[in-house]
Design brief:
- The protein is mainly α.
- It is 64% helix and 1% strand.
- The chain has 14 helices and 2 strands.
- Strands 1-2 form a two-stranded antiparallel ribbon.
- The radius of gyration is 18 Å and the shape is globular.
C-alpha cells in the first residue's frame, strides 16, 4: 500500500509541475492541464462547435491516451470491456460537462486554479465535494450502471487507434482541423512538449489509478486517503512552482479565464461532482480507463465532448464576464436530471437489476 500511495502522490505532483510549466510555455493561465477545457477545445477543433476562441486539438489529451494505452499493453492490463448502461453514461457525462463549463474547469483545473491563487476555485471545490457526497448517497442506496462484460479486442482498440491517427495528423501539421486565432484555443505550448507531457501523465495515471473524485469519495466512504494523496500533492507542487515562477496571484477578482459568481461556481461543480461520482471516475480517469480498453468510458468521453459542443453552440458556457442565463437554467435542469437518474438507478428502480456499480477508479 505504501508504494501505491507514493505512486499516486508522484502522479499528482508531476501533473501539478507539468501544468505550471505548460503555462510557462504557452498554455492558458491556470489551465496547464484541464481535461474538460481541453476536450472542449478538441470538440471545437473537430468542428463540433463553432466557438472560434476555443478550437484546438490539444496534444496533452492525445498523449495521455497514447501513454495509458501503451502502459496497459506493456503491463498486460489492457482488456476490452463494456456494455453497461451506455445511454445513462452518455447523459451523465453530457450534463457533467455543462456543469464544468459553467465553473470553467474540471476537478484538475479546480485544484490548479486554487494553486494559482484563484479563490473562486475553493468555492467550486466545496461544490465538488457536495456533489460527490450526493453521488455517494445514491451509491449507498444501490445505484448501479451494471458490470462491464468482455468484448472483442477490436472494440477497445478503436479509441486509441483513432487517437494515434489524429496525433500523426497534428504532429505533421496536416491542416484538417479547426484552430483558434485568438482566445484560449490560440494559447498552447509547443506540440511535442505538450504531447510528451501528456504521455508522461498517461503512463503515471494508468499505473497509479489516479482519480480526482475517487480520493474524495473514498475518504468520505472509508476514510481511505490513498487516492486523496494525489489531489493534495498536485495542489502543493503546483502552488510551489507558481510561487517560484511568480505566477501566484491570490484573490477572487481578475483571475484568468474565470468568473467570481460564487453561486454558479458552487452549483456547476456540484452538478459535475454528482455526475462523475455516478459515472465512477473523473474525466481524467475516464480517459485512462478508455485507453485501457473500457468502451463504457469511451461513451463517457463522447458524452463530455458532445456536452461541450452543446454548451458552446447554445451559449451555455460561462466566460470571465459571468454565467449566461441559459447556462444557469442548464445547470438547474442538469441537477434535476442527475438527481432523477440517481433516484431511478437506486434500489427502488434499479438499472440492470441492481448489480453493484463497478467503479472505474
Amino acid at each position: 500500500m505504501g508504494k501505491k500511495r507514493i505512486l499516486v502522490g508522484v502522479t499528482g505532483g508531476v501533473i501539478g509541475v507539468l501544468a505550471v510549466l505548460l503555462v510557462q510555455y504557452g498554455n492558458p493561465p491556470n489551465m496547464g492541464y484541464c481535461i474538460a477545457c481541453f476536450l472542449r477545445d478538441i470538440s471545437g477543433g473537430l468542428g463540433f462547435h463553432k466557438a472560434a476562441p476555443v478550437q484546438y486539438i490539444r496534444p496533452e489529451i492525445l498523449g495521455m491516451v497514447i501513454g495509458a494505452f501503451c502502459a496497459a499493453l506493456l503491463t498486460k492490463e489492457y482488456k476490452s470491456v463494456g456494455g453497461s448502461s451506455p445511454l445513462v453514461r452518455f447523459l451523465l457525462a453530457f450534463v457533467g460537462m455543462i456543469g464544468m463549463l459553467v465553473f470553467l474547469g474540471c476537478p484538475v483545473r479546480a485544484v490548479l486554479r486554487l494553486a494559482g491563487g484563484d479563490l473562486n476555485a475553493a468555492v467550486g471545490i466545496v461544490g465538488l465535494v457536495a456533489g460527490i457526497a450526493v453521488g455517494i448517497y445514491f451509491l449507498n442506496q444501490g445505484f448501479s450502471l451494471g458490470r462491464a462484460s468482455i468484448q472483442h479486442s477490436l472494440n477497445g482498440q478503436i479509441f486509441p487507434l483513432i487517437t494515434i491517427i489524429i496525433t500523426v495528423l497534428v504532429v505533421f501539421g496536416v491542416p484538417v482541423f479547426f484552430a483558434s486565432q485568438e482566445g484560449p484555443g490560440s494559447m498552447h505550448a509547443p506540440i511535442l512538449l505538450a504531447l510528451g507531457a501528456g504521455i508522461a501523465v498517461g503512463i503515471l495515471a494508468q499505473r497509479s489509478r489516479f482519480c480526482m473524485i475517487g480520493g474524495i469519495r473514498d475518504f468520505i466512504l472509508f476514510k481511505d486517503v490513498h487516492l486523496l494523496i494525489g489531489f493534495l500533492t498536485m495542489l502543493v507542487f503546483a502552488f510551489a512552482v507558481n510561487l517560484f515562477t511568480g505566477m501566484f496571484n491570490p484573490g477572487f477578482t481578475g483571475q484568468p479565464i474565470a468568473h467570481n459568481d460564487g453561486l454558479w461556481n458552487f452549483l456547476g461543480m456540484a452538478l459535475a461532482g454528482t455526475a462523475v461520482t455516478l459515472l465512477g471516475g473523473c474525466p481524467l480517469r475516464q480517459l485512462i480507463a478508455a485507453s485501457e480498453g473500457n468502451t463504457d468510458c469511451v461513451i463517457s468521453i463522447l458524452g463530455l465532448i458532445a456536452g461541450a459542443a452543446f454548451a458552446h453552440n447554445f451559449g451555455l458556457a460561462a466566460s470571465p464576464t459571468g454565467v449566461p442565463v441559459e447556462g444557469q437554467w442548464a445547470v438547474v435542469f442538469g441537477l434535476v436530471l442527475v438527481l432523477g437518474l440517481g433516484f431511478l438507478g437506486s434500489k427502488q428502480f434499479s438499472i440492470n437489476g441492481g448489480v453493484k456499480v463497478e467503479q472505474n477508479s
